[in-house]
Amino acid sequence: MASFVDRVVLHAAGGNGGNGCASIRREKFKPLAGPDGGDGGDGGSVKLVVDANTTTLLEYHHSPHRRATSGTQGMGDDRDGANGGDLVLKVPDGTVVKDLDGNVLADLVGDGAEYVIAAGGKGGLGNRALSSQKRKAPGFALLGEEGDEADVELEVKTIADVALVGFPSAGKSSLIAAISAARPKIADYPFTTLVPNLGVVQAGQSRFTVADVPGLIPGASEGKGLGLEFLRHIERTAMIVHVLDCATLEPGRDPITDLDVIEAELAAYSGDIGIAGGRVPLTERPRLVVLNKIDVPEARELADFVKADLEARGLRVFEISTASHEGLRELKFALAEVVEKARADAPAPEAAPIVLRPRPVNESKFTVRRLGGEHDYWFEVRGTKPERWVRQTDFNNDEAVGFLADRLAKLGVEDGLFKAGAVAGDEVRIGDPKNAVVFDWEPTLQTGAELLGGRGTDLRLDQSDRPTRGDKRREFTERMDAKAEARRELWTERESGHWTDPEDS
Fold first, then answer.
1. 195 marked as binding residue
2. Is 170 marked as a binding-site residue?
3. Strand locations in 174-313, DSSP E?
4. Global pTM?
5. Are 326 and 294 in contact (CB under 8 A)?
């Protein structure tokens, strides 16, 4: 089973936003006290975050589909829905994020660096937030937006100071085991190293990391063997060390030929441009040559023979033996010298800039185009606001559809359709062609809610005919005055004898 994975395709989806709530508050003596529907919660986002303790993408190789949690729906009594939690995916330092077309989206270098690959959807507004003086009791709420979905490719490009390159079985794994505490698998057959190995080397006061890159062969830059899979791991290194096998018995192999072949492969390999460590060509970086296995007498003679030719090319040459540790001390201090110089020449790291995301100045803009043929045509409306409003509309609610029509008209979409030549009954599509909302356009949209009254009103809450407190006082005073007048009239009639029984007279 694989334990090191440095390239995966990740399918990420942000959480959906919760729907808003349409609710009316009911209290004692106030059965219809106004809208109190809360807003839906926002969906969580999927983020990549560099973690120093993560060294492989194996987790995402086994589980490539990741989705953040969605926001919950708003509720009555002014209760907003809960926001969905962000899904944080930990990746190794040096991870490059690309789309499936190979375009670099982000280069994550440094502990804590992060990148959002799938943003969560916004929650819908409840009818409490949609109420106004003209729309006192909306009978609808906005739907939550769906979260973004993205398919990205993750690549790990090892962060190391020194890269050991060479043919299979040249002794790279033995060298990194001899100069560091790393313990890679070592054997006498080709392609023993199937994954890059990292080792930390201490030379005096200097400490640096060395990467053991799996063996290269002719054609590695074109995908032959394992080279193309692991050449990217040397893109960020400060220097390259050629490990040449002086004891090989393969025909046509010698240190000079091996060096020329590997140099040609490094020159042919084209790394990503525009990311850290990818701007300087590999052939222009500092390099050393290590003549390995001089503990074998024939190998020592060959190393002495080719050393002058290599130095004539301007290369520093070291003769070593990983078996007897001969020459390793000198090699470590030479590597430390080059690494320290590269660190001193490197620009000072800059703090991560603060990213501000202001509202786009052209968010309210939209386009109206006539598409199709002479007879089979339609009008396409594209824009941030129209498309978002359409996604948030519940088309099963006539009042919500009327609200959408009002918003589009206020934005100027109807005027744009008129200018584009649209007439009543023409087909209009709003949004991406893959999932656009299609309808027959009517300049004035009539809905069931309008037949019952003004859009956004509720006849149950129309209290304009209810008497005021002053009216009630006047009515009570008039009623009491009328009663008093009736009593006086009855008393007057009694005193005048109108109530006397004729038989008693």
1. yes
2. yes
3. 197-203, 206-212, 239-245, 287-292
4. 0.67
5. yes
Q: Is 476 annotated as a binding-site member?
A: no
322 among annotated binding-site residues: yes
173 is in an annotated binding site: yes
Q: Determine whether the annotation assigns residue 448 to a binding site.
A: no
- Annotation-wise, does 214 bind a ligand? yes
Q: Beta strands 104-108 and 46-50: pairing type?
A: unpaired
Quick one: tokens of 250? 């393969």
- Tell me whether domains 7-156 and 360-450 share a fold: no
Q: Is 192 annotated as a binding residue?
A: yes
Residue 321 is labelled as binding a ligand: yes
193 is in an annotated binding site: yes
DSSP code, position 385:
H
Is position 134 annotated in a ligand binding site?
no
Tell me the C-alpha distance between 122 and 14, whole Å: 10
- In angstroms, rounded to a whole number, what is the distance separating the alpha carbons of residues 441 and 173? 71
Domain boundaries, the chain: 7-156, 162-345, 360-450, 452-494
Is 212 assigned to a binding site? Answer: yes
Rounded Cα distance, 503 and 55, in Å = 123
Contact 139, 187 (CB under 8 A): no
376: three-class secondary structure by DSSP: coil
Query: Does the annotation place 111 within a ligand binding site?
Result: no
**Residue 364 marked in a binding site:** no
The CATH fold assigned to 162-345 is: Rossmann fold (3.40.50)
43 assigned to a ligand binding site: no
Name the CATH superfamily for 7-156: GTP1/OBG domain (2.70.210.12)
Q: State yes or no: 307 annotated in a binding site.
A: no
Per-residue pLDDT of the chain (505 residues; tens, 9 = 90+): 345 677 889 999 999 999 999 998 888 777 777 899 999 999 999 999 998 888 788 888 889 999 999 999 999 888 999 999 999 999 988 888 988 888 888 888 888 888 999 999 999 999 999 988 878 888 899 999 999 999 999 988 777 788 888 887 778 888 888 888 766 555 454 444 456 677 788 888 888 888 887 756 555 444 454 445 566 777 778 888 888 888 877 777 888 888 888 888 777 776 655 565 555 667 778 888 989 888 888 888 888 888 888 889 888 999 988 888 888 899 889 999 888 888 887 766 555 555 555 666 655 688 888 888 888 888 999 988 888 999 999 888 888 888 888 888 888 888 888 888 888 888 889 988 888 888 888 875 444 444 445 555 555 455 556 677 888 888 888 888 888 888 888 888 777 776 555 565 4
69 annotated binding-site participant: no
Q: Which residue, among 210, 315, 197, 209, has the nearest Cα to 255 in the 3D structure?
A: 315
Give the separation between CA 193 and CA 212, rounded to whole angstroms: 8
Q: Return the CATH superfamily for domain 360-450.
A: GTP-binding protein OBG, C-terminal domain (3.30.300.350)
CA distance 83 to 71: 5
Establish whether 28 is an annotated binding residue. Answer: no
Is 327 known to sit in a ligand binding site?
no
CB–CB of 221/271 below 8 Å? no
Whether residue 152 is annotated as binding a ligand: the answer is no
